[in-house]
Each structure stands twice: as structure tokens, then as C-alpha cells.
TrEMBL record:
Signal peptide residues on this chain, from the entry's feature table: 1-23
Keywords: Signal
Domain of life assignment: Bacteria
Gene3D superfamilies reported for this sequence: DsrEFH-like (3.40.1260.10)
Protein name: Sulfur reduction protein DsrE
Amino acid sequence: MKTYLLSSILLVLTLFSINKTQAQQMDNDTNNYVVLTKKVPQLQPIILTAEALKAEEGDAFGDFQVIICGKEIGDITNVEKMGNFIEKAEKAGVHIIACGFSLKKFKVDKTKVPKKIEVVDNGILYNFQLQKKGYKSISL
């Protein structure tokens, strides 16, 4: 009975280890990135970085997301401050995400957020979820 129980536990642990190893191997085929920022002007160097990584990595370049959070979140509704960042981001394959929690906290009208910017409920949580999926992450 004791041997049967130990063998069963060993078998289950082995199966979980194999599944985890296979998942890690699949994630290594592409490089995905997420950047958490608090300032719209930082989009310029972030987009340049994405372009450089895309050129360097070729087919290994995966998804690149930028999450904007914090007290300056209202700047995303300012056409002058946003300039052509949305256009440049699109060309570079960069997805711009707005933190819904920050929008609420700093009383930014969601209807004024550009349509091409996705809004998530909680930008920090979203960042952690992407990291759990294997995204490389940096906060500025």
C-alpha cells in the first residue's frame, strides 16, 4: 500500500514536470514584452525600442504591450501630448493599454480615450498576468 501511494505521487509529479517543461519550451519561440509607464512622452523611446527589437529578433519578436498608469493618465486624451504615438505604435506592432483604475481614480472621461487604446480594469494586475505568461517586463 505504501509503495503504491509513493509510486502514484512520483508519477503525478513527473507528469506535472513534463507539462511545465513543454510549456516553457513553447514560450521560448517568441519574445513578448510589456512596459509599464506613467508618462506619455516615454512612448517615444519605448516605441523605438520595440522597433529595434523587432528588427533584431525577426520572427522571434512576439507581442509588445505598453500599459499607461498613474496620475498623468489623462494625457492620453490630450491630442497635442499624444501626437502621433498611436500611429507610430501601430506601425511598430506596439499595443497601448490604459489602466482603468487610474482613469477612475483621476477622473478621466473614458469616452475621450482614443479608440485604438485598449482599457483594462487594473493595469498593474494586467502586467503581472502577462509576466505569468512569460512576458519580459520593465516599469518606467
